[in-house]
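User: Some background: our group keeps a shared notebook of sequences we're curious about, and every so often someone picks one and asks for a predicted structure to add to the entry. Today it's my turn. The entry only has the sequence so far, pasted here. Could you supply the structure so I can complete it?
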Amino acid sequence: MNIKFDLNITQTQKLIMTQEMRQSIEILQLTAMELNGLIETEIMENPVLEFNEVSIKEVVPINEDGGPLKGDLVKEEPNPEPSPKEEIQWDEYFHSMENADYRGQLQPIADNDDEYGFEKFTSQEKTLNEYLHFQFTMQEKDFSEEEKRVAEYLIDCIDDNGYLLIDMDYVKNILEADEDSVQKMIAVIQGFDPSGVGCRDIKECLLIQLRQMGYDDDEVFMDIVKKHLIDLADNQFKRIAQETGLTIEDVYEFKEVIKTLEPKPGREFSCSERVSYVIPDGSIEIVNDELVVKVNDVSAPRLRINNYYKGLLKNSDKNDETKLYLEKKLDSAAFLIKSIEQRRDTIKKVITAIAESQRGFFFEGVGDLRPLTLKTIAETIEVHESTVSRAIRGKYIQTPKGTYALKFFFKRGYSQGEEDRSSDAIKRLIQELIDQEDKKKPLSDQRISELLQAKNLDVARRTVAKYREALLIQPSSKRKEYR
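Assistant: Of course. Here's the predicted structure to add to the notebook entry:
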């Protein structure tokens, strides 16, 4: 065996992720709001960039067979690509940039004091905390200063659901108040609207609401909540009837009353911190029985090079330092414009391919969703699966059936004869079967599986159970009714 160290030269091909490629990939997977934030930052840092206020709306019609009406839907539009930095001829580049995509004169910014600002259209809804403080203010004259202090502290400890989740010993110690004052003010708060507010647990929440409905005179029903609430949730009507002396029908009717109560009294009050907004990256509309795909300019604003800085670079009187600075900023601006346009083009291709694949959904609804994978779309638009995955990340589309995340259209499926059905279509069938069942003899998961198999859908019992839980439907034992 000959073991020795040698120096050899070999030639291999390797894909290296340059900084530009990484930035392009990052821009592709940004959501609309993230991209707008990035653009605002770049415009602040790069003076040669500005918004192009005149942009072209992209419209792509699809024929009845799911194909394009004119041309190829996935045909890429030519984008101006600058040569390497050291060889950029900016006069030629500016000329190529001045095409229909970026043409437009600078519009003067209106300076009108009477213009309506966004702040004039904002609103603020009353929170649960404010509502409770308001109710206490109406009757605070009936309490001592110490009781007022205790009540205000307790109200501030109530969470958004209306629950008072705090240790009473801690309240007494931090406020240096006696237990009678604390319990008195808790009782006062529990009498406020909404009914059940200020409770410490779900049992107390239900008991407060039942008392206000007049059930406090009947200890039997109050004991059911105190001692048999879990059994009541599990439909153990016979066991409850034996221990309370009530009939099964009375226990069942009492459960129907319980179902009308609110387990989270503060839910009706909005919490502005939880409100989120979605900017659709595109839309699919039905025009003359044809699908029309549009790309939302708001989600990916078009940019251009400022004419003033174009002139500065063309001016030969400028010194080398100024010219070098402008070239650096122009390089950065050109790459950002190119990356955003590539992002628009990729998203357009993905939405168009989805429109072709899920044509039935946009006309009929969820029942006509077909199985779809990233690989199918990737092969259709001739890109890698990872590109499709990045393109649909956090992206939304507005359709005649509502606004959906692009991920919504990628479903696993089941065969049904010559057709395939998506998992959402199966969930819809399960929902319909349960809605039509005999409530006295609800369908078990196994029976639902058999009914689906009768429709040529091979769905296992465990899969039915998983879909039923995803639909927030209880098992058959808890769906049973006795009337």
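Suggested note for the entry: The chain is about 45% helix and 10% strand. Strands lie at 49-51, 59-62, 282-287, 290-295, 303-305, 396-399, 402-405, 413-416, 419-422.
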